[in-house]
Structures are given as C-alpha cells and as structure tokens.
Amino acid sequence: APVLHAEGLVKTHYGEGAPAHAVRGVDLCVRQGEFVAVTGPSGAGKSTLLHLLGGLQRPDGGSIRLDGERTDAWSEARWAVERRKRIGIVFQFFNLVSNLSVADNVELPALLAGCTPKQARTEREQLLGELGLGGKERSMPGELSGGEQQRVALARALVNHPPLLLADEPAGSLDSKGTREVMRLLSRFHQRGQTIVLVTHDARLASAADRVISFFDGRIADDAELDGTGASR
Ligand code: ADP
Ligand code: ADP
Prior knowledge:
This protein is an alpha/beta fold. The chain has helices at 46-53, 76-86, 102-112, 117-130, 146-158, 176-191, 203-206; strands spanning 4-13, 20-30, 35-39, 61-66, 69-70, 87-90, 164-168, 195-200, 211-216, 219-225. Bound molecules: adenosine-5'-diphosphate (2 copies).
C-alpha cells in the first residue's frame, strides 16, 4: 500500500467573513520513498492540505489512509499517538519547546513513544551529530540561529523513524544559508529512503523533489515527475 492515500479531501474554514474553501476535492497518493513538493501561490490551500494529511485538522469530506489503514475513525488522541510514530512534521516557525534544551526537545517524542531513556539518548546523539549539532545539545532553542533551530526540529521529527515526513514551508523563515542547509538535509534523508511531502510557495525549492504538485485554488492543477534536473519529464 502507498504510505499515504488521500481521496476526495475537502476542507472549508469558517471564520469571520466568507467561508474559505481551502481544499476542494483532492486525491493524492504518495508511494514509499517519494519526495513530493506541493507548490502554489499563497492562499492556494497548501498548508491546509498538509494539516489534513498530518491529522492536525479534520477534513469535512474524503478520507486518508496511512499504509493502507483508514484514519476516518481516529480520535484526536489516536492521531497524536500515530503522529508520533508514523508522521514527522516540521513547520515554518520550528515550534520547539522553548524551555527545554535541544537534547530534551529531540528526546521528548521518543520517550512519549515508549523508548527507554537510553534508547532516546542514543537516537538523539546520533541524529544531532549527523545534523551537525553535536555541540549544541545543552543549548536552549532561543540561543540558536534559525537554521540550527530548524535542524533541531528536523531531528525531533525524525527521532522515531516515521515512514512519512511532512514539511510546511520549512525554509520560510530562514536566510539563504539556512534555506540551502535545510533543503540539503531533506535531500539527504530522501536519498536514504525517507518519504517526504514538502509544502512550499517557492518553485525553486520544489525542484529538489522528484515530483511536483501544483496547487491552485484548493485543487491539484498539475502533478509532474521531475527527472532530477528540475525539468518536467
Ligand atoms: P496556503 O498554505 O497555500 O497559503 P492556506 O491553506 O493557508 O493556503 O489557506 C487557504 C485558504 O484558507 C486561504 O484563503 C486562507 O485564508 C484560508 N484559511 C486557512 N486557515 C484558515 C482558518 N483557520 N480560518 C479561516 N480561514 C483559513
Ligand atoms: P502555518 O502555515 O504556520 O501552518 P496557517 O496558514 O495554517 O499557518 O495559519 C496559522 C494559524 O492561523 C492557524 O491556526 C490557522 O488556522 C490560522 N489562519 C490561517 N489563515 C487564516 C485566516 N484567513 N483566517 C483565520 N485564521 C487563519
């Protein structure tokens, strides 16, 4: 079964003013090992789509399957548990716990998922070392640059080896150096087999993926495989 299979997804936001039809009927199948970028202008509904795929928002219609398993009946609590194990998420603004050290931020999801403290520490040391943050483990998030904080967020998202990584504008608040860094890391994890769905309004960043979905007005307008040179096949 594909890692992710969404059918007929619909989501409308009701706030002040007119309802926002953010996602208007989306079918999306992501296979193991794919790196899919979802791109499109601001307001197209990309972020809402990602929130639906990660169970952070519930669809008004349609269904989502993870590894073939239906999620329709999952409660919020069940989503929270499953997210920890099978869906890593990174956001534009990192969302690290500001009063926990870098090490504790990364270990927390492992401990919550039932790892022993020793296992959590081993995983944390390995990931942070690999991400070039071995010397920052005792730092607090606020002491780090944006690029470093996003690397910590990436370590936290991957500490439980989730089959799926969702990234919502992960470079959106970084300078060009931080952007290159986070994109290089996404590519590296992809090369090792990590399945990734990246949401970005930046078409240049989308070209790091091997499949680019153009999102417009709540719908998929185009879905193209790339050949690795950034050009459509
Ligand atoms: P994108 O990520 O492509 O910029 P979003 O998914 O953030 O698009 O937004 C899609 C549409 O839904 C926009 O019109 C936005 O204003 C609206 N929207 C998103 N979230 C909410 C919300 N919580 N309440 C009301 N409207 C929302
Ligand atoms: P992010 O891209 O960081 O996930 P979102 O675009 O989803 O952020 O929006 C951040 C917060 O603002 C969310 O709680 C979202 O529901 C809300 N939001 C986004 N767009 C609107 C909107 N047009 N009206 C009201 N709330 C919105």
